[in-house]
Amino acid sequence: MNEINTWKRNGWLLGAFLLGAGSLSAQEASPSLNSGDTAWMITATVLVLFMTLPGLALFYGGLVRSKNVLSVLMQCFSVACLASLVWVAVGYSLAFSGGNDWIGNLDKAFLKGVGVDSLSGEIPESVFIMFQMTFAIITPGLIVGALVERMKFSAVLLFSALWLIVVYAPAVHWVWASEGLMFKWGAFDLAGGIVVHATAGVSALVLAKMLGTRTGFPNKLQPPHNPGMVMIGASMLWVGWFGFNAGSQLAANGSAGMTMLVTHLSAATASLTWAVVERLKTGKSGLVGVVTGMVAGMATITPASGHVGPMGAILLGFLAGVICYFMCGLIRNGLKIDDSLDVFAVHGVGGILGTLLVAFLGHESLGGVGGDFNMLAQFGVQVKSLAITIVWSLVATVAIVFIVKKVTGLRVSDEAEQNGLDFEEHGEAAYTLD
């Protein structure tokens, strides 16, 4: 009898052990919240929003004439508000909720099913939504630089809303959603060379061409009214970009640290390179030039920041400073397109350059941290991913502009352009001198 009781007791103990082990295994398999990663992602989200409000707004505001500065601030601020609501309504769901190779579905429209305990990996889904929302805010904000001083405020808002749904959300899905076509291909784009800079740059160029030039373009336009404001805004962009790139690692770890380092190195190198090139070409280096070079370096490192090492970042920054500088002149003086604040030349060209070169500079044999991969095969993936994105951005933007033109009209009147959009569109003035 004692032996039987012993066997029973041992059997119960074994069963309890197996059940406990199974329960522990299930707990390990299910995702759990990582408080360190969550704290970093909340911080990164604030940094990226800081890029637009007030960083980008001040950067662009200082570049225009004084009679248009408030209109630019108004456009950046209002686009941020509008993009937030569009992202919650349909943008997030179309980008990240299931679907197929090309587009998500509407299962999470208006954030259906997202609660306090919902997780995305090891961070709250609400934090991931908000982080991605800041990208959806700044990307159409970049396009504002191509349309300043001549586009109706109502047209800016309608264009931005349609563009987010038709161009941006699909591009996010292709590259960053696990169901997306380019994600499956293994495209390298940590923080948006394809998703942000290529889409915004190409769309900005198309919009600028269809919108037409400002009166006096290209030789009779006044220089930026406040280079100091430009520098302050650019500095905010620089700080915020650490959240933009390093935050895209979605974790507080060594990869995020390396991403932050290479981001800084590319920006610094591009800024100095631009200053040297500008001095060789014109005899002087200007403040607007060095900060524009910094932005070009940031745009170029963005897709590559998760894969290149420090030396690769310096090389990318050097190339950005040279190539983006000359592209500004080509677009303005060669193609005669009034991309007013050089959105395509800086963001579009920079993002494309970084997206292509990461296929080589990200390899461990060339100092990268992206591991060992077939460089030529990866280059092919980068090229076809860019090609699809560029073609779609171009075609969709043309269609959106036609719709906006029919609904609201595109341009202000010649008289309004002459008087300035601050007063004509908003009834205010940035500077009142008695």
TrEMBL record:
Keyword Metal-binding attributed: no
Pfam families: Ammonium_transp
Molecular functions per Gene Ontology: ammonium channel activity
Membrane topology, from the record: Multi-pass membrane protein
Domain Ammonium transporter AmtB-like, chain residue ranges per copy: 39-431
Keyword Membrane: yes
Keyword annotations: Ammonia transport, Membrane, Signal, Transmembrane, Transmembrane helix, Transport
Protein's name in the database: Ammonium transporter
Native species: Roseibacillus persicicus
